[in-house]
Amino acid sequence: MNIGEYVQHADWKLEKHVPVIDSPDEVAADEMFEVEVTIGKEIAHPNTTEHHIAWINLHFIPYGDKYSHQVGNYEFSGHGASVEGPNTGPVYTHHGVKTMLKVSKSGVLQAISYCNIHGLWEFSKEIKVKEA
Fold first, then answer.
1. How do residues 103-129 score in pLDDT, each as one tens digit?
2. Domain residue ranges of the chain, discontinuous segments joined by +
3. CB 56, CB 112: distance < 8 Å
């Protein structure tokens, strides 16, 4: 069994579960840039007690390296649960995150998200480091 067999892939314009990475396509080596990862960019994903995105994990995989490097793990805990019942709580977190990072070589950003009902979803985006 391979966990990769259970990770879903789809076009984010047609599927509400796919994480979408917004970032520059090309960056300067070792200079900070912003990356935003959201779920349901074109089609909104529910955020209810019963159906929600629990977390997003962001990795960077440099070209030529054997291993990925975790950029961040972002958990979303507010889905409207309360002692009064489902979807009656005072807080709902949005399943999106912005972070700053820098890279020293070209590679791929990979976002993996987890829907409590529909499992794991992934999206990747190439980041090129400008030639000096």
1. 999 999 999 999 999 999 999 999 999
2. 3-129
3. yes
The long-range contacts involving 78-86, CB below 8 angstroms and separated by at least 24 positions, are 79/47, 79/48, 79/49, 79/52, 80/47, 80/48, 80/49, 81/49, 86/48, 86/49, 86/50
Active site residues: 15-17, 45, 51, 115, 118
DSSP assignment string, 56-102: EEEEEEETT-SS-EEEEEEE---BS-BTTBTT-SS-B--SEEEEEE-
- Of the options 3.40.50.300, 2.60.40.730, 2.60.120.10, 3.40.50.2000, the CATH number for the domain spanning 3-129: 2.60.40.730
